[in-house]
Amino acid sequence: MRRRSILGTSLAMVAAMGLTACGGGGDSGASKTVRITLTNHVWTDNIKKALPEFEKQTGLKAEITQLGEDQLSDQYNVKLNAGSSDIDVMMYRPLQEGRLFAKNKYLADLSEQVKASKDWDFGDFQAGPVEATTYEGKPVGVPIITEQEVLYYRKDLLDKAGLSAPPKTLDELKAAAAKIKAAEPDVAGFVARTGKSAAVTQFSSFLYSFGGDFVDGSGKAAVNSAAAKQAYAYYGGLIKDSGPANVSTDMSWSEAMAIFTQGKAAFYTEANSLYKNATDPAKSKVADQVGFAPFPAGPSGSKPYNIPAWALGINANSENTANAWKFIEWATGKAQTLAQQKSGVPGARTSVWANPEGTSTFPKDMAEAIAASTKDGVGHDRPQVVKVAESREIVGQPIVDAITGKDAAAAADTANAAFQKFLDDEAK
């Protein structure tokens, strides 16, 4: 879940010719060996075990380079910047470096491939993840791992407070959190990320559910819209009034999760991908009391993010694009996506979530919460810009200000001016 910017600003300066379409004359140096760069992840471990099937079906050889996130960053920084052709398939994070990669033409245009692969069925992929792997109307990646924001809660504390069900709205969440904190002085009614950068992704679902977004329809900064100001005030106020005593304003998921798993909070909004931290008895003191529910609805409904944490793309400089696509087509097909999901890796295909086999390994209430999230989920959980880390620092400041009791509306106005300058600078 670490979401660090993996490339320096030098990449943004690279000149480029344009999105390169796969196929055509780009495979003059085609090889029977497909060179695939992946990061350390359960998805990668699973796909490596299944590679003999791919090689038997296609007659190709898959050569895997598996790296930690920092090493992956370093390799992409060097090789993509240099226009290297010795990477065919690349695993990347659409919302962290995807826009940078697409802008600099590192990712091949997959339009022809996704249309031609009828049985593979591009229409089966959820709208949110597809949005995040699309650049200027063209698909440049295929989502492989998704995340949605859901509500974690303590069943025992709800029962004790006389609450028959988890809150369905943000108003109900606020009331329930306040009620439990008043009755249980040593327990926070609510906990969530508080660090100005780390909190942005989880705050985003609140922002969307209040009717806001980071930019408006014309691409202008919108973090001081009426909806955004309400969202900042709500999120910060909920932590200030019902959060842990002497709450830190530098918490990422690990610190917030620790508070919840130590039995010190009733409600927690977080990415579903982290749920086993809360349900594993070895990690959680309240493992048998944890429940999950869809993200509570705000004035604009329940609009959590539904994003691809990772995707597969083809290096635009690869000379083996046709075979690279064969790997992606196989690795993201319905059979592999189902197998991955059964191992606990949430996929981006609608059909797999509709298949009881695809949800069999998830807690029933978690599967239901995810299903609800994919209906109206938003395809980004942070500003969609090139310099993601810098933008998060800007739009996250009002969160910290609201938590510490400062004027959230004034903080939003200040942040909006800074964010607009950032957008203007980036557009130059």
Automatic annotation (TrEMBL):
<feature type="signal peptide">
    <location>
        <begin position="1"/>
        <end position="21"/>
    </location>
</feature>
<dbReference type="Pfam" id="PF01547">
    <property type="entry name" value="SBP_bac_1"/>
</dbReference>
<dbReference type="InterPro" id="IPR050490">
    <property type="entry name" value="Bact_solute-bd_prot1"/>
</dbReference>
<keyword id="KW-0762">Sugar transport</keyword>
<keyword id="KW-0813">Transport</keyword>
<protein>
    <submittedName>
        <fullName>Multiple sugar transport system substrate-binding protein</fullName>
    </submittedName>
</protein>
<dbReference type="InterPro" id="IPR006059">
    <property type="entry name" value="SBP"/>
</dbReference>
<keyword id="KW-0732">Signal</keyword>
